[in-house]
Structure formats: C-alpha cells, structure tokens
Amino acid sequence: MKRRKFIVLIGGAAAAWPLAARAQQKLVRIGVLASYHWPPLRKFVQKLKELGYVEGGTVRFEYRFAEGDDDRYSILAAELVALPVDLILTSGTPAALAAKTATSTIPIVMGSIGDAVNTGIVSSLARPGGNITGFSALNLELEGKRLELLKLLIPQLSRVGMLGNAANPLLDVSLKSLRSAADALGVSLDIFEIRRTDEIDGALLKLVQARPEAVVVAADTLLLNSRREIVEALAKGNLPAIYPFREYAAVGGLLVHGANLSVLFERAAAYVDRILKGAKPGDLPVQQATEFEIIINLKAASALGLKIPPTLLSRADEVIE
Questions:
Q1: SS3 sequence of 54-103
Q2: Quick one: DSSP state of residue 247?
Q3: Cystine design at 239: which of 75, 92, 234, 248 (Cβ 3.0–4.6 Å)?
Q4: Do the Cβ atoms of 152 and 316 come closer than 8 Å?
C-alpha cells in the first residue's frame, strides 16, 4: 500500500513538474524603446530583478535606441513588434507615439511621458483603454514652477528664452502652461525651436545672440541626448538655465527641476509585472508623478557669477558642490 502511494505521488509529481518547470523557464521578451540607455532604465531593470525577472534567465531585453533621431522611432518600434516582444517599455513622448502606432495588441508601458492625454496617446488617465498605460512626469504646474525658480534666482528677471523640440507634441502642451506663468510673473518668453539634432547648434547660437536673462530647456529626449553640448553652449554664453532632468546637472547644468524619473521607472516595473501576470494595460490608470526634485549646481552658479538665495538653497533636494 505504501509502495502504491509512493508510486502515485511520484507519478503525480512527474506530471506536474514539466508544467511548473515550463512556467518558471518561460523567457519573457521586453522591448525597450528610448533615446539612449539612461539611468532610469537601469532602475527599471533592477526593480524587475527584485520582482524575480533575471536578465538572461527569465527575461530578455530587446533595446532599441533612437540616439537623438526621433524619426527612427517608428522603424525601431516596428522591429520590436516583428520579433515579437511580449511587452514594450517606452521613454518619452515620441517613443510612446511610435509604439502606439506600431501595435494595438502588444502591451505598452510608458516609463515616463510628459502628458499622455493632451498629446493624444490616451483619452483618459483613469481609464486609458487599449494596450497602453504608464506614468506621466508632468503636472499642470511644473512649467510654471520652473519659471518661478528662475525668478527666485534672478529677481529682476523679465525676459526668458526657451529651447524646445517642435517635433515633440509635448512642446505645445508645455508652452500653454509656461506662457500662462510668464504672464503672471510679468516675463516675456521667446521660443527657439529645433526639429532634429543637427539644428541644435544653430538654435543655441541664435539663443545666445538674443541675450535673454535666463533660459528654460524643454523636457525632451532628443535634447537630453545633446545635454553636454547644450549646457556648455549656455554656460559659454553666460546664460543661467533651468533643465528638466538631473542628467543635465551631472554635466554642469545650473538648475534642475523635474519629476524623479528613477521612481517612475521603478513603478513602471511593477506595472510590467502585473501585466505579465494577466492584468490588462487599459485597466491600469496612467499615474502622474508625485515626487519632484530640485538640484542646484553651485560650481555652475559660481562660474556664472550668481549667488544662490538661501530661500532657494533650502528647497533643494540635492546641491552639487
């Protein structure tokens, strides 16, 4: 009897084991569509590892980087769909738009996007529907707050230049908020637009020649890819500037105010986990950033001959000596 029970148990385990093994060994392919491999993506991979997705074991990442050429996103998105991947993670508005155009069936998670509704990616934050969800780095007050920080730094501020990518639909959304804030603060706003990487030098030259009292650099991954060039040109032109991503401060940028994108991409990893376990992207609300950071580069301030007011220093989350 005992022998018979033992055989039954072994037989049952043998039948169940292949199923469990196949479930554990299933290789998930995640497509990553971004401008380049920046730090928030590494946070995403690290968080997925904590959730049990080991690169080369249970997950394989298919990276596709536009490297500052937004026109490539549609081609790269089509490549990921053709593989196919099980899910696509995007970074930035152009990448999300390209992924949405490329597929209506493969789940898409936006690790970070400026404004998902006003750029036409989803119709509602609460119920995005379809195959796309994710996280927004922008709130309605963010652009205005960047301008307020510049005004705090330069009390006599009356004229600001903005460097933006006109090919990114987010620019129009940002400008509406920024112009409203500029009017309230009594500041005039001049826009210097680019559409491709090879136009940045010319726009920077015009910006420096125009001599505004300060500069706002728009949130855009194409511009981010040329951050060192932008920071150096504005510093050489003796123009104080505020930037949207902490990567600008790392290459000498004066002032940064924006969402903590590493936190957003970690939260995106949790969404990916839920979707791979059966959740529908369209049922998961697009969440807005709740954690923002101010970074001040004192070395850059000194080079510009600026003294950071104590009121601004006290608000900083990070000060670079």
A1: CECCCEEEEEEECCCCHHHHHHHHHHHHHCCCCEEEEECHHHHHHHHHHC
A2: H
A3: 234
A4: no
d(CA 153, CA 298): 12
CATH class of the 2-138+261-291 domain in this structure: alpha beta
Residue 70 buriedness (CB in 10 A; 0-12 / 13-18 / 19+): buried
pLDDT cut 90: percent of the chain above it:
84
The HSE-up count of residue 228 (CA atoms within 13 Å, CB side) is: 1
Query: 202: which 2 tokens?
Result: 């010319």
At residue 51, the 3 state secondary structure works out as: coil
The whole-angstrom separation of Cα 292 and Cα 108 is 24
Indicate the burial class of 224 (C-beta count within 10 angstroms; 0-12, 13-18, 19 or more).
buried
Picking from 70, 111, 117, the residue whose alpha carbon sits closest to that of residue 94 is 70
- Give the SS3 label for residue 111: strand
Pick the CATH number of 142-259+293-320 from 3.40.50.2300, 3.20.20.70, 3.30.70.260, 3.10.110.10: 3.40.50.2300
What is the model's pLDDT at position 20? 37
The tokens for 206 are 């015009």
Q: Write down the residue that tokens 């401060």 correspond to.
A: 249
Render the burial of 160-175: b for 16+ CB within 10 Å, e for the rest. Answer: bbbbbbebbbbbebbb
pLDDT for 202-248, tens place per residue? 999 999 999 999 999 999 999 999 999 999 999 999 999 999 999 99
Contact 242, 312 (CB under 8 A): no
Tokens of 285: 């609300």
Structure tokens at 17: 């084991």
Phi then psi for 193, rounded to 5 degrees? -100, 150
Scan for tokens 């018979």, then name that residue.
Answer: 4
